[in-house]
Design goal:
The chain has 297 residues and is an alpha+beta fold. It contains ten helices and ten strands. The strands form two sheets. The chain has a six-stranded antiparallel beta sheet. It starts with 15 loop residues before the first strand and ends in a 14-residue tail after the last helix. The C terminus is likely disordered.
Length: 297
């Protein structure tokens, strides 16, 4: 039996779609998942106008490049549909094929390819890992936020970060030992839902390891406990948000009960209050470097 992701029915009923307000051009971003079921599905010699980054979740198929080179499609493999490039895909109807994907409009896709932000290698092996699905679900959730809460430029950056993490997984897939991979996956999980205060023990449970061993290896690899690492990422994200939002709105955005609690932790971490940080941004747009050694609980 082929390895596959553990898929829930709700995955295929949720999707994200946004018109991107970046410049005068009409740009778009879509993230979704689909199951082809047991019906035949083939795209012979197609030429898409958009850029698609597709990840096989279940089943098998084939990807044929314009040159005629044939690649097997299996769970954990990522393949690209480049704008204007002819290729063929076929999905085995007996394998209950399913995939998730991120799609950019053609103009944006070509720009990303020219700048090297999208790989020119048609297929890479990301691997079957539940953390990848959590990453994808998080992106879809973020895409549903309105423009004032998540501006288009930040959403574009988050989508590219997700894709780059898939590329990184493909590069690291064959070289990481067990605990290195656990720490990598834990960092990704801890960086999500920064407004929540779920116990870090839940991350260890999700990754299938004991919390005592997880905490030991995590701190050895990163220099922080899992809780302090999450605070570090929360404050760094808050620094970016303060460039566009008030202190009160930023505090609420990251799950603080009030602006005072947020200000106290922010000052302990960064070395200045959020308001002082905003004033500094007016004269020094680049973000200040945080001081994680002073983070508190």
């Amino acid at each position: 039996m082929l390895p596959a992701f553990d898929l829930s029915a709700t995955l295929f009923s949720e999707s994200g779609s946004r018109r991107l307000r970046i410049d005068a051009s009409v740009r778009s971003l879509v993230a979704s998942a689909r199951a082809h079921g047991r019906r035949p599905m083939q795209h012979p010699h197609v030429q898409f106008k958009t850029l698609g980054i597709n990840l096989v979740l279940r089943g098998r198929g084939r990807y044929v490049e314009q040159s005629g080179q044939v690649h097997e499609l299996l769970p954990g493999w990522l393949f690209h549909r480049y704008p204007g490039i002819v290729h063929t895909t076929w999905f085995d109807p007996e394998s209950d094929y399913a995939e998730c994907f991120v799609v950019f409009d053609g103009e944006t896709g070509n720009q990303l390819l020219k700048t090297g932000l999208i790989s020119a290698v048609p297929l890479v092996n990301v691997g079957v890992d539940p953390v990848v699905l959590e990453e994808f679900k998080h992106l879809v959730k973020r895409m549903r936020l309105p423009e004032p809460e998540l501006p288009s430029r930040r959403l574009m950056l988050e989508a590219l970060t997700f894709i780059n993490e898939l590329y990184d997984r493909a590069r690291r897939n064959r070289v990481l030992d067990f605990w290195e991979k656990v720490v990598e996956d834990a960092c990704l999980l801890l960086e999500h839902n920064l407004d929540e205060r779920a116990p870090t023990e839940a991350v260890a449970k999700q990754l299938g390891v004991s919390y005592a061993a997880f905490r030991k290896h995590f701190k050895s690899a990163t220099g922080y406990s899992p809780a302090d690492y999450r605070i570090r990422r929360r404050i760094e994200s808050a620094q970016q948000a303060l460039a566009e939002h008030s202190v009160l709105a930023t505090a609420a955005m990251f799950g603080y009960g009030d602006a005072y609690a947020f200000s106290a932790q922010f000052k302990a971490f960064v070395g200045m209050s959020p308001r002082a940080f905003q004033r500094r941004l007016q004269h020094q747009p680049e973000l200040a470097t945080p001081r994680p050694d002073h983070a508190q609980g």
